[in-house]
Structure formats: C-alpha cells, structure tokens
C-alpha cells in the first residue's frame, strides 16, 4: 500500500497497535486498551520468551506480574484482540501505532553512571521500528524518558525514512499508573498526557483513550513538556514521602505522632491528604531512578542548585531505610548476630509481586551483614526473586557468626517462631490484624515489634507483652 494511503488510514483510526515491552506497564496498559477498544488488534511483544509464555499461560496464577483486577481484563481480551508474541518485526510491520514500553533503568557504567537513564533498550527498539515498519507509523513513547529523548527517536526514524516507502510521527504519552492499583488507574486516570506537534497523530491517540476517558482529562502539550511532566510528577510524589519521613524522625524524638501531624496538615486543601504515609522509605522501580535522572539533567543544563535540591529527596530516603535497620540492631542490645528476625513483607508496596528497590532489600542486607537469620514472609513474592535481591540463596545457620542467612516462612506466625523481633515492612492487608497473643507466645523474650508502616495493631501487641516501635510515634 502506498505511504499516503496508509497515512490517511492512520488519520481515520488506528486499527493495529504493537507494544514493545511486556512488563509492568506494557502488559496492563495494553490489556486495558484492548478491553476498551475491541475493534483494535493489540499485540504486545518482548524479547523475553519466558515472559511472553507466562502472559499466554492459561493458568492465570502464572502471569508474570501480580496486579489486582488484571486477570478479569485479560480473560475478556486475550485471544480476542489482545495477543502476546515474541515476533517483534511482524507486529511492528502490521501496526499503525507502536508503543515503546521498554525498561529505562539508571546507568551503571560510563558517563552519568548512577544518575542518567540507560537508553540502550529505547535506542534498540527504535532502530527495530525504523527497520521493520511499513507505511505510516505513529511511534509513542510510553517509557519514562529524559526530556528531549523524542529528538533521538525522531533522528533514528528519519534516517530510516530516506528513500524508503515509510514515514513516522512521534508522540510522548507517559504512563502514570501505580503498581497494585494499575487497572483502576488505567480505567479511571486523573489525566492522560499526550505530547507532540503532529495534529493527526495526536488526534489518533486521543481517539483511542476517548473510548473510556472523558475528553477534558486528555491533556495535550508539546513533546518536551510531556516528557518532563512525568519526571516532575514522580519527583513531587517522592518529595512528599521524604518530607513526611523526615518529620516522622522528629516526631519520634519529640513525642509527636506523625499520623496526627499528617492528618492535621493533610486537612489543608492546599496540601491534600494523600501520599503522607510515613514508612520505611519509598521503593519501586520509578521514584529513585526518575529523580536521579532529573538530577542528572539539571546538572547537564548547568543548574547545580536545582540538582542538589532534588538529590536531597533521594538522600533522605536512603537515610530512612538505613536508620530503621540500625534502630532494630540497637534495640536488640546492639547485636543481631545469630538472632532470628521475622520480616513481614518483601514487595516494595502491597498488592504487587514487584521487589525493585524495595526498602526490604536494604533493611535485610544491613541485618544480614550483622549476622541476623531472617525468616521472610510475603504473600506474592517468589523466593527466587529474594535470592537475586539479597545475592544469596536461602539457608539459615543459627550458629553463624560470619554472615546472616534467610529462609521463606509459610505464614507470619511461623516466621515468628523463636524470633527476637518481627519487622513489618510491606503494608499487606493481612498484617493489619495479626494475632499478637499467638505471636508473642512463640517468640523469644523480650520480643520486639518494629512496625515500619504504622499499620499493625500496636495496642494489641503491647497488651500481649511485646515491646513496640512504630515509625513516627514519639
Ligand atoms: P519492565 O522491566 O517490567 O518491562 C520492560 C520489558 O521490555 C522487559 O520485559 C524487557 O524484556 C522488554 N524489552 C527491552 N528491550 C526490548 C526490545 N528491544 N524489544 C522487545 N522487548 C524489549 O519495565 P516496566 O516496569 O514495565 O517499565 C517500562 C517503562 O515504563 C520504564 O521506562 C518505566 O520507567 C516506565 N514506567 C513504569 C511504571 C511502573 O510502575 N513500573 C509506571 C510508569 C512508567
Ligand atoms: C509511582 C507513581 O505513583 C506512579 O504515578 C508512576 O507511574 C510510577 O511510580 P509506584 O512506584 O508503582 O508508582 O507506587 P506508589 O504508590 O507511588 O508507591 C511508591 C513507594 O512509595 C512505595 O514504596 C510506597 O510504599 C511508598 N509510599 C507511597 C509511602 O511510603 N508513603 C505514601 O504515602 C505513599
């Protein structure tokens, strides 16, 4: 088909979508698009064959990610107009619109290591789009990217266009979903952001979202504002958490209660009451990497003061995680060597199996370094993942005096048998109402509860005989 015909078809309506990257964003986002737009064929592709096989698994418990409500959406759309495949070229060639939803972690080597985003996966899949696309293709940045990345994408695509029967438009459409609430966030977004300067492409993407999102919630900006808005949103959210965690430490020192302070300030409509929950520091794959990227960009543009302002949000977060691990050691008579410690929760937040940058990792590593024997419980995290995160296989050695060990416990109560302390790290619903009498009975005395989320029934634990430390409680 000549380019012009395909171009005008793209203007009329998008019929086929390809999404590169079947991860925590690509999978749920495309599932909801396919569910809400039954006339559009959506194919999600990935280099990782095991991940694609898991997305195609008939046993929904084998899906590669745990996300409440995802199974119901998949059951409606998968096999109808939602497909998961490893044939990347074919899906690109067939598509009118290609979403780039690949990983963009922090660089670990070279210029900008430890701060800048590693764009090698974005570049690789853009080159693949450039080579495999046919006719007119709208390329949508779904990954979170440094501001002005669209320039790079456009340059790679433009080079492929020369002398070829193909053309491209580039849009930015960052994703604001949070893990654990992804399906609800996608079905009822606060806003959808689309950046770009090609009106036909903007309309084509807006039309997809208009199947279920009110038009007033679809914001249109230029490319750079869209890219920067995503980094800024995450920086502002993370900043609130570091702010409340800094005040939690002051509450502990002064007798104030951070929950009461959060309620008092959150009642001011200018501040708002969300994202004021003090905890073990934020985790997840986004906040740290996106702020570090912002810091890098500020430095790159010569804005040293702005860079150090945002850097402090990350530093406070690191400090909060470390301070909790050290406080546990200090309360347990300054040694945890050979002591069993129950750790409740390993995911970075409730309702996900994701452990990326989980505060549990840093806290566990600090305790292992001190020789602790950790009994870890988490309803969704797989022990293989914990082995990778802690860089050591499971295995307890109560006689160890060199390095700590860990094992998986089938229930919170079993984790606590013979333990000197129990640390609540993730706010899973089942940890809100634990049987503290039963737990206290199986622990070694004095028995400690360290509640890093302020969710456990501290009064019941105290009444049972436990010593209790709760984040932010003076
Ligand atoms: P992820 O690691 O779960 O998934 C990325 C997938 O891309 C992987 O499965 C990987 O195999 C695949 N991939 C990489 N290069 C490829 C290539 N050339 N061809 C085919 N597949 C390729 O990552 P994620 O959590 O889904 O995040 C993706 C992007 O979305 C990141 O930029 C992230 O910052 C952003 N984001 C994430 C979230 C979140 O909550 N996880 C929310 C908003 C935005
Ligand atoms: C975040 C953003 O919320 C989302 O918009 C973006 O698209 C991706 O990054 P996510 O990391 O999945 O989402 O979860 P989020 O709910 O933001 O929680 C991040 C971390 O902050 C978690 O460790 C969570 O426990 C912690 N948190 C959150 C707090 O400690 N206190 C709060 O009040 C809120």
In CATH terms, the superfamily of the largest domain is NAD(P)-binding Rossmann-like Domain
| First and last CA, distance | 71 Å
> Major β-sheet, in short?
6 strands, parallel
Indicate the structural class.
Answer: alpha/beta
Q: Spell out which ligands are present.
A: nicotinamide-adenine-dinucleotide, uridine-5'-diphosphate-xylopyranose
Number of domains: 2
Which shape, going by the Cα principal axes?
Answer: globular
Alpha plus pi helix count: 18
Number of strands: 14
Rounded mean pLDDT score:
96
Descriptive account of the structure:
This protein is of the alpha/beta class and 474 residues long. The protein has two domains: 3-221, 3-Layer(aba) Sandwich (Rossmann fold); 252-474, NAD(P)-binding Rossmann-like Domain (Rossmann fold, 3-Layer(aba) Sandwich), CATH 3.40.50. 44% of the residues lie in helices and 14% in strands. It is built from 18 helices and 14 strands. A six-stranded parallel β-sheet has the order 3-2-1-4-5-6, sandwiched between helices. Strands 11-10-9-12-13-14 form a six-stranded parallel β-sheet, sandwiched between helices. Strand 12, helix 17 and strand 13 form a beta-alpha-beta unit. Helix 12 (287-300) packs antiparallel against helix 13. The longest helix is centred in the middle third of the chain and has 32 residues, at 223-254. The model has no long low-confidence stretch (mean pLDDT 96). The structure holds nicotinamide-adenine-dinucleotide and uridine-5'-diphosphate-xylopyranose. Uridine-5'-diphosphate-xylopyranose binds next to helix 10.
């Amino acid at each position: 088909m000549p380019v012009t015909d395909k171009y005008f078809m793209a203007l009329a309506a998008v019929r086929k979508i390809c999404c590169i990257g079947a991860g925590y964003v690509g999978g749920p986002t495309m599932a909801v698009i396919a569910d809400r737009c039954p006339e559009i064929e959506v194919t999600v592709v990935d280099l990782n064959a095991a991940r694609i096989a898991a997305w195609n698994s008939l046993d929904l418990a084998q899906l590669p990610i745990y996300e409440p409500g995802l199974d119901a959406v998949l059951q409606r759309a998968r096999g109808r107009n939602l497909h998961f495949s490893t044939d990347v070229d074919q899906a690109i060639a067939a598509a009118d619109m290609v979403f780039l939803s690949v990983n963009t972690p922090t660089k670990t080597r070279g210029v900008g290591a430890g701060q800048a985003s590693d764009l090698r996966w974005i570049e690789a899949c853009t080159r693949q789009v450039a080579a495999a696309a046919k006719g007119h293709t709208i390329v949508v940045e779904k990954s979170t990217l440094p501001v002005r990345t669209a320039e790079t994408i456009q340059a790679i695509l433009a080079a492929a266009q020369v002398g070829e029967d193909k053309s491209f438009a580039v849009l930015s459409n960052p994703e604001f979903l949070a893990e654990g609430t992804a399906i609800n966030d996608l079905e009822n977004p606060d806003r959808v952001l689309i950046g770009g300067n090609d009106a036909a492409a903007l309309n084509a993407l807006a039309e997809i979202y208009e199947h279920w999102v009110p038009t007033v919630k679809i914001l249109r900006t230029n490319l750079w504002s869209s890219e920067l808005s995503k980094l800024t949103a995450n920086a502002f959210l993370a900043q609130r958490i570091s702010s409340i965690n800094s005040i939690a430490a002051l509450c502990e020192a002064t007798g104030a209660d951070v929950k009461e302070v959060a309620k008092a300030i959150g009642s001011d409509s200018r501040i708002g009451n969300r994202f004021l929950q003090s905890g073990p520091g934020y985790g997840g794959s986004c906040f740290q990497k996106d702020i570090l990227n912002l810091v890098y960009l500020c430095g790159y543009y010569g804005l040293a003061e702005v860079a150090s302002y945002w850097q402090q949000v990350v530093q406070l977060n690191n400090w909060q995680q470390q301070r909790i691990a050290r406080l546990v050691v200090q309360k347990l008579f300054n040694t945890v060597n050979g002591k069993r410690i129950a750790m409740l929760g390993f995911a970075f937040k409730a309702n996900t199996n994701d452990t990326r940058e989980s505060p549990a990792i840093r806290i566990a590593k600090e305790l292992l370094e001190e020789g602790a024997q950790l009994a870890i419980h988490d309803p969704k995290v797989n022990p293989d993942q914990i082995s990778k995160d802690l860089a050591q296989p499971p295995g307890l050695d109560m006689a160890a005096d060199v390095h700590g060990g860990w094992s998986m416990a089938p229930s919170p109560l079993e984790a606590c048998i013979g333990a000197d302390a129990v640390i609540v790290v993730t706010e899973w619903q089942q940890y809100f109402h634990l049987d503290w009498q039963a737990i206290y009975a199986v622990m070694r005395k004095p028995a400690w509860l360290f509640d890093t989320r302020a969710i456990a029934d501290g009064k019941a634990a105290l009444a049972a005989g436990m010593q209790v430390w709760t984040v932010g409680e003076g």
